[in-house]
Amino acid sequence: MITGWGRVEQAVSLAVAGLATGSMPAPIARDSVRDEAVRKLAAVAGERGWSLAVLREVAGLEADLFFPGGPAEMVEYWSDLCDRDMVAAMLGTTEPRLSQRVRQALLLRLPADRAMRAATRSGLAVLATPCARGGLRRSLMRTVNAFWQAAQDESEGLTYVTKRLTLGGVYGATLLFWLARGQDEAAMAAFVDRRLAGVLRLGKWRARLSGRSAPPRPASAHSATA
Fold this sequence. Notes:
The protein is mainly alpha-helical.
């Protein structure tokens, strides 16, 4: 029997796997009023849940009108808002290395904040339900894209796709680790370092394999007659 948390883990894994088959979701309609309302809800959502009743209580009697799609829409919007906060925080980075900019973005997106972790855990449970209609996959895709935006990566074509799929796997594993042990900043940073180091090792291995498997270059006229 799969527990509630087990369903969340399974849903995250499936959503990460689904990144390869989905197109980039449409942008979310954003405005400052919705931002303020969902921030107020997220501050208490870990204890009280993502519901329209709680939203009305903390953000005003008509706040539910901002999210006609209900709890799933609220969680998806909040995830997008967290992505925007992360991108804004990265604007002033002077780190020259792309891998380290990605590291910075991951740690900014998943801080050692108890209320944020609790709200995320509760929100993932909402997005893992069938009524969310793909909300978890859409949120993960937006977040992964936001990481590369924050890291100022300008890849195009196949490289663009490959990088996002690779980081999707890293983020999915890091997200689950953060939910379980994210209060420990040192452990969190070490986990991110291990995941990124693994990606770099895999990239080097693929490059070597590609080099070995390349067809031999034809002999030049000079070497043929030497």
